[in-house]
Design a protein that fits this description.
The chain is of the alpha/beta class. The chain is 49% helix and 12% strand. It binds zinc ion.
């Protein structure tokens, strides 16, 4: 898990002035305001105690007064322009937020790669992470059911939330796996850009430029999917994780059934369900995913005379924003090979 950058401290010394005690140490918003006021009082005392003929010192002291006035009055502004701390619930939201934020926000992931979003169990450290964040990025659409409890435990009154799926029309069943459609992913990136910009306007132009570059990559990816899968329209598959209906719909494929398999071993009932569905829809392949018990599925596929393919739902993986493209291009290659 990534850690937040340590709070920055600023040590502003006005040592060139003829005033030896005019040193402002700014560690927090509170101290910058207090030190600014103290500093102003110092400067006023100095001006008051000067001889009329000492114009150079007088001028410098006035300069010191205005420097201090600025720091005292606008310390809060300076503080509010620091990079926000963003926590993204799981991998796709993290990748998009990281791509948009670049270096202008500390982005952390709540559900670390290696843990499964559908089986997530909150830990005390997660409550702490939300308690200290400025912004929470989430997929929503019912995927992160644990969030409301977690947020209420964190008691972070200033927490802003970005719903990455805002404005996305879901399928009838409200399936949350919208990030696997490169077109809907663009909307998610735009939502994250807007949310970050609203919370941190000072960096809005950077967020805009970063989002634009990432969206361009998503558009190129969409073109690739479209041109390579159009000749394979109607290709039909059975999935074991209901992750691909948006991807399938976008490119004319058909995820005809989702067969929930038990963790341990398949019963004769499970096998007959898969066989029945495979025959009914004339499926081309069974869709497994990385980490699935491929031996069991392989046996089942062999019995059915089908192949097993593996698609990455991007719920786990690398924390590099480019991982999205790497995994999706791999998925495209897999679909192309399976549907031929
Ligand atoms: Zn899923």
């Amino acid at each position: 898990m990534l850690s937040y950058p340590a709070p920055r401290s600023r040590d502003i010394s006005v040592s060139h002035l003829p005033v030896t005690d005019l040193k402002i140490t700014c560690l927090t918003r509170g101290s910058i305001v207090c030190n600014g006021i103290n500093c102003m009082l110092n400067a006023l005392n100095i001006i008051g105690g000067m001889g009329i003929g000492n114009r150079r010192k007088y001028g410098l002291a006035i300069l010191a007064f205005f420097v201090c006035l600025f720091l005292g009055s606008f310390g809060g502004w300076a503080q509010s322009n620091r990079s926000p701390k963003v926590i993204a619930t799981f991998l796709p939201v993290y990748l998009f937020a990281k791509a948009v934020a670049g270096q202008n926000a500390g982005v952390e992931i709540l559900i670390s790669p290696g843990s499964e979003v559908h089986e997530y169990q909150a830990k005390p450290a997660d409550v702490q992470a939300i308690a200290t964040a400025d912004i929470l990025g989430k997929n929503d659409l019912g995927l992160e059911e644990f969030l409301s409890q977690l947020i209420s435990s964190a008691g972070n009154q200033k927490l802003k939330q970005i719903d990455a799926s805002q404005g996305i029309q879901t399928l009838e069943d409200g399936n949350p796996h919208v990030w696997l459609d490169p077109v809907l992913a663009q909307k998610q990136v735009a939502n994250i850009r807007d949310g970050l910009s609203a919370a941190n306007q000072a960096n809005a132009s950077t967020y805009k430029a970063n989002a634009e570059a990432y969206i361009k990559q998503l558009q190129a990816l969409h073109q690739e999917f479209e041109s390579r899968l159009t000749p394979l329209k109607g290709c039909t598959f059975i999935a074991f994780h209901d992750a691909y209906p948006y991807l399938a719909k976008r490119y004319g494929l058909q995820q005809v059934a989702v067969v929930e398999l038990p963790e341990d071993s398949m019963t004769p009932g499970d096998i007959s369900r898969v066989m029945e569905t495979a025959k009914r829809f004339k499926v081309k392949f069974l869709m497994a995913e990385p980490g699935a018990d491929s031996q069991r599925l392989q046996q089942l596929a062999t019995d059915l005379g089908l192949s097993v393919r593996s698609l990455d739902p991007l719920e786990q993986g690398d924390l590099d924003p480019q991982y999205y493209f790497k995994a999706m291009r791999q998925n495209l290659q897999t679909l192309e090979a399976a549907c031929r």
